[in-house]
Amino acid sequence: MKGLKWYDKLMFFANSVAAVLLLLSYLLPFVSPSKFTLLSVLSLGVPILIIINILFLVYWLLKVKRQLLLSFIVLLLGYSYVFSLYKFTSSKKIEDSGNFKVMNYNVRLFNLYDWLPNENVASDIKQFVDTTQPDVLCIQEYKNHEDFSLPDYYKHEELTDAGLKVGQVIYSKFPIVDAGSVDFKDTANNAIYVDIKKGSDTLRVYNIHLQSSKINPEVEELQKESSEHLFNKVEETFLTQEMQVKQFLAHKAKCTYKTVISGDLNNTAYSYIYSQLKGEAVDAFDEAGNGFGKTYNLKFFPLRIDFIFADPSISVNGFKTYSDTKLSDHFPIEATLKI
Q1: Do residues 172 and 153 lie in contact, with contact meaning Cβ atoms separated by under 8 Å?
Q2: Phi–psi pair at 254, nearest 5 degrees
Q3: 2-28: pLDDT as tens digits
Q4: Which of 255, 275, 279 is nearest to 194 (CA)?
Q5: What share of the chain is helix, strand, coil (3-state, %, to 5)?
Q6: For 26-144, where are the alpha helices, taking DSSP H only?
Q7: Pick from 337, 336, 327: which is nearest to 128 by CA?
Q8: What is d(CA 193, CA 252) in angstroms, rounded to the nearest whole number?
Q9: What are the tens digits of pLDDT across the range 91-135?
């Protein structure tokens, strides 16, 4: 610290705090929320911590100061974190006759409460699906709507909310030979599944929607909430998600087929929840995506909370985020797979 001016000492103190927090976040995949809730909440801020540490690194580099080593070493130790935030490679795209496309989309009830100034969201989403033609489509926050019909697909739905009759649905161009659900306790969230027949193979596809904190992430709305109230909401959500994932994995363990897990986790790729759910599977974005992979339409923040995980024996030959499709608060994602 010798030779630093007072404002640089202040900068280095802030740098140290950001570096320590990022270092602590490396433990997130291994520590369950039920054991250390405060640490698990940190998962939401990891993208910001990575960006802040990169900015500090650039700051000290431009000033030619050895303080750059702090963020450099911390970022180096977590290089997999840094590169999971932004994929610098171009999207993988392998053409193969055995390819099939799995799409995930949280449609936010087809704009039931007029969040968007668009009265034709359901029909616009139908047109989008008709154009992209996914072979399997997993939808969260689904509600039956007269303007959304896919007659060329087999369908399995589970509407869990007794009042609104909303839930999850899976559409498949391949025949569905079995279907069911994993009903989470004390919540309208759940996971559903279909066993589909593709040629001589049977594949299980899960559509999972984990508990939401129901916090409006826009800055203007966050400022209205007390920090204690926000923390309590997130804490309760993560504990509920942990129980939901345990219940889901117990169900999945009984499956003898190759599996694809698609859904809205309401959590990030830096969390214990993500780590447990992914297991040995392949994150399709990590394998074939590029850029930030942002799936939630939040200003100035690259939040990726929607995922497609493929069994290790399934090839991921492509991945796409439809970030121009602004018909919900989520963006649809699509993985090109081959058994």
Answers
A1: yes
A2: -90, -5
A3: 678 888 999 999 999 999 999 999 999
A4: 255
A5: 35, 25, 40
A6: 37-41, 46-62, 68-77, 79-85, 108-111, 121-132
A7: 327
A8: 10
A9: 889 999 999 999 999 999 999 999 999 999 999 999 999 999 999
CB 295 within 8 A of CB 263: no
Sign of the alpha-carbon torsion through 72, 73, 79, 82 = negative
For 100-338, CATH number out of 3.30.470.30, 3.40.50.720, 3.30.40.10, 3.60.10.10 equals: 3.60.10.10
Report the 10 Å Cβ neighbour count for 107: 23
- Is beta strand 282-283 parallel, antiparallel or unpaired with respect to 306-310? antiparallel
Cα gap 158→209, rounded to integer Å? 12
How many CB atoms within 10 Å of residue 97?
5
How many angstroms separate the CA atoms of 108 and 13, rounded? 42
Neighbours of 313 (CB within 10 A): 8
